[in-house]
Write a structure and sequence with these properties.
By secondary structure, the chain is of the alpha+beta class. It folds into two domains: 101 residues, Rossmann fold (3-Layer(aba) Sandwich), CATH 3.40.50.10330; 142 residues, Tumour Suppressor Smad4, CATH 2.60.200.30. The chain is elongated, with a radius of gyration of 22 Å.
C-alpha cells in the first residue's frame, strides 16, 4: 500500500505570478525583436506607453505591441488614414486583430516596407447622448469593438425604450450590446450574436437576458442597423445607467430620460496577417 506524501499544491498566487512573469518576459523579448527589426530597416520610431499622452507629430504608420486591447487603445489616436499594425507580444494576449507575433515581426515589417502588407478598413461607431435637458454629449473616441448600455449596477434591472426602424418597445433586461463588424466576434458573439464581414458598416445590437411576457410580443431583441439611414435609439429609464466603450476603455454616465444614438466614426486601416 502506497501512502501519499504531504505535498501541498502551489498556491494560486504563485501560479498567477508565474503566468504574469512568463507574459512579461515574452513581451520584452518581442519588444527587443521589434526594435532590432526596425533598426535594421532604418525606421525611426517614437515610443509611447498605453494610456500616455498621444505624441503630437505625423506618423507613417503605427505599431501596437501587446494584444487586441493595445491595438484598440492605439486606434483612438488615429483620425486619418494612418496604417495600424498590431503585434501580439505574448501568449497571454489575444491577437485576433494582430498581423503577427514575435516570430513573424521581420516578415510583417518587410512586407509593409515593400508595400505588400494587406490591410482591412474597419469601421467604428460614435455614441451621441441626447440629454433630457437638451444638451448633446458625444463619445470622446470612436469604438472599434462595441458599446454596452446597462444599469450602473450589474445586479439591477436595465429599463429602457428601444426603437428600431418603425417599431418602439419598452424593455426590462440586463442591457444591450451595440457592436461594430469588428466587435461581432467579441462580446456580442459570445452572447449569441452573428459574425459580420470586416468591412460591413452596419451596427449589430443584442438585448441581454430580456424579461419577456409572451403577451407583450417584444420583437426588438437582436438585429442590424445602418447608422446613417436607419432609425435606432435607446432611451434610458433607469435612475442611473452607463454606456461603456470597448469594455473598460471609457464609461459615459446616462441619466433618466437620456436618449442614445449611434453614428459612424472614421474608419481605421488595420493590418492583417500576411500570407507565408
Amino acid at each position: 500500500m502506497l501512502q501519499a506524501q504531504n505535498m501541498a499544491p502551489p498556491s494560486a498566487d504563485a501560479h498567477y505570478l508565474s503566468l504574469i512573469t512568463k507574459a512579461h518576459d515574452e513581451h520584452y523579448s518581442c519588444y527587443d525583436t521589434l526594435r532590432k527589426s526596425l533598426d535594421e530597416l532604418g525606421i525611426r520610431v517614437e515610443e509611447t506607453s498605453r494610456g500616455a499622452e498621444w505624441p503630437q507629430c505625423h506618423f507613417d504608420f503605427i505599431i501596437a505591441l501587446g494584444g487586441d486591447g493595445t491595438l484598440i487603445t492605439s486606434s483612438y489616436g488615429i483620425q486619418d488614414d494612418t496604417p495600424l499594425i498590431g503585434i501580439k507580444s505574448s501568449s497571454a494576449s489575444v491577437g485576433y486583430l494582430c498581423a503577427g507575433e514575435e516570430s513573424s515581426v521581420p516578415q510583417v515589417l518587410r512586407h509593409f516596407v515593400e508595400g505588400r502588407l494587406p490591410f482591412v478598413r474597419r469601421h467604428r461607431l460614435r455614441a451621441q447622448i441626447h440629454r433630457a435637458e437638451g444638451a448633446v454629449e458625444i463619445s470622446p473616441f470612436a469604438a472599434l469593438n462595441d458599446f454596452l448600455f446597462a444599469a450602473s449596477s450589474p445586479a439591477a434591472t436595465t429599463r429602457y425604450r428601444i426603437a428600431s426602424m418603425d417599431r418602439i418597445e419598452s424593455h426590462k433586461s440586463s442591457g444591450i450590446w451595440i457592436s461594430t463588424a469588428t466587435g461581432s466576434t467579441a462580446a456580442i458573439g459570445a452572447a449569441g450574436g452573428t459574425p459580420m464581414l470586416a468591412d460591413d458598416q452596419h451596427l449589430q445590437f443584442l438585448v441581454r437576458e430580456l424579461y419577456h411576457r409572451r403577451e407583450e410580443g417584444l420583437q426588438i431583441v437582436q438585429g442590424f442597423s445602418d447608422p446613417d439611414n436607419d432609425t435606432f435609439w435607446i432611451e434610458n429609464l433607469c435612475p442611473s445607467a452607463i454606456l461603456a466603450l470597448d469594455g473598460e476603455k471609457w464609461v459615459m454616465k446616462v441619466h433618466f430620460g437620456d436618449r442614445i444614438h449611434f453614428t459612424l466614426g472614421s474608419p481605421v486601416r488595420v493590418a492583417v496577417r500576411p500570407d507565408p
